[in-house]
Amino acid sequence: MVKIALVQLQPVLGDKSANIELIRKAVASTDAPLVIFPEMFLTGYMVRDKLQPLAETLDGLSVRAVCEIARSENRCIIVGMPEKDSVRDGILYNSAVVVQPDGSVGTYHKMHLVNFGPFEEYTYFAKGARMPLFDTPAGKVGIIICFDIFFPELCKYYALEGADMIVCISASPSVTREFFEKVMVARAIENTVFFAYVNFVGPEKNLIFWGGDALVSPRGDIIARGGYYEEGIVEVDVDLKELEVARQFRPTIRESREDVLRAVCDRFALGPKPDD
Fold first, then answer.
1. Is the separation of the CB atoms in 195 and 215 below 8 Å?
2. Contact 110, 128 (CB under 8 A)
3. Domains in the chain: how many in total?
4. Does the structure show a pLDDT above 70 at 121?
5. Structural domain of 38
6. CB 76: neighbour CB atoms within 10 A?
7. In this predicted model, what pLDDT tens digit does every residue of 85-100 receive, in sequence order?
8. Of these four, 106, 113, 150, 264, which has the most CB atoms within 10 Å of its CB?
9. Cα(198)–Cα(146) distance, rounded to whole angstroms?
């Protein structure tokens, strides 16, 4: 068994110092070896035109502060932030930063950006292109960010690569709650993985985020859930032995067909059909 902590707190919009202090206090309040924060938690989500000055590279001051927290508390921390490309000037990513207990840092860049309704991510961010797995106290973890959840091929890739858990950090407003709650269960079942969902909570400008942090078992059971529209930290024990049982009961990974997956890739390579 390993405990994880899903942090459902409201960050201070545009105030990285205040949000680092929230991270520090949240990590200190739990003994979970893995502590997970929502999408864009370092800055708040609706910072828009302030993203360029607020964003940092992975060796920036804020990331170094989170590294120091991870080292001093001996924890693995996952937190969302706007990340500057270290080589290409002006390129930003909506990132999940993974800080290990030794202070080493990895990152996942959101692959599917949101550009409808109140969301304008294409205006500010570049699309990610890598799908790394991270070794954590809760096993091998693949990370997705919010809208990524609606693209099952991403989670399938992680599962085929050996993920034990998929972590989705999110900034989902109240009008989308029903969709996320349905899909997170599907992603756990179809890939026989644990699925951890960590969402924003509270109002931010013209949006209200619903919270609802959750851990779903590899057989689709909701093991733990945070409240709606209220702050808190969800602590839950993960038994990785459940993975073997789930995969014997419903061998979806073993029975995934390479020819079908290749056909999907080929369909994209061919481009749209004349009647599309």
1. yes
2. yes
3. 1
4. yes
5. 2-251
6. 23
7. 977 888 999 999 999 9
8. 113
9. 9
Catalytic residues: 39, 110, 146
Task: Give the C-alpha separation, 151 to 149, whole Å.
Answer: 6
First to last CA, the chain: 49
What is the DSSP code (8-state) at residue 11? P
3-state class (DSSP) for residue 201: strand
Q: pLDDT tens digit string along 52-82?
A: 999 999 999 999 999 999 999 999 999 999 9
Residue 164 domain flag = yes
Residue with tokens 């979970």: 32
Q: Is residue 265 part of a domain?
A: no
Give the pLDDT mean for 229-255. Answer: 93
Tokens found for residue 73: 């508390």
Query: Distance of CA 216 to CAs 43, 51, 161, 185, 195, Å?
Result: 28, 33, 20, 6, 5
Residue 256 located in a structural domain: no
Torsion of CA 95, 37, 21, 231, to 10 degrees: 140
Under a CB-based contact definition with an 8 Å cutoff, are residues 95 and 109 in contact?
yes
Tracing tokens 């073997």 back to the chain, one arrives at: 244
Report yes or no: 36 and 198 within 8 Å, Cβ to Cβ: yes
Q: Which two tokens stand for residue 211?
A: 């919270």
268 located within any domain: no
Q: H or E element: which one contains 134?
A: strand 133-136
Interatomic CA distance for residues 212 and 185, integer angstroms:
13
Whichever domain contains 233, its CATH number is 3.60.110.10
Mean pLDDT of 39-44: 98
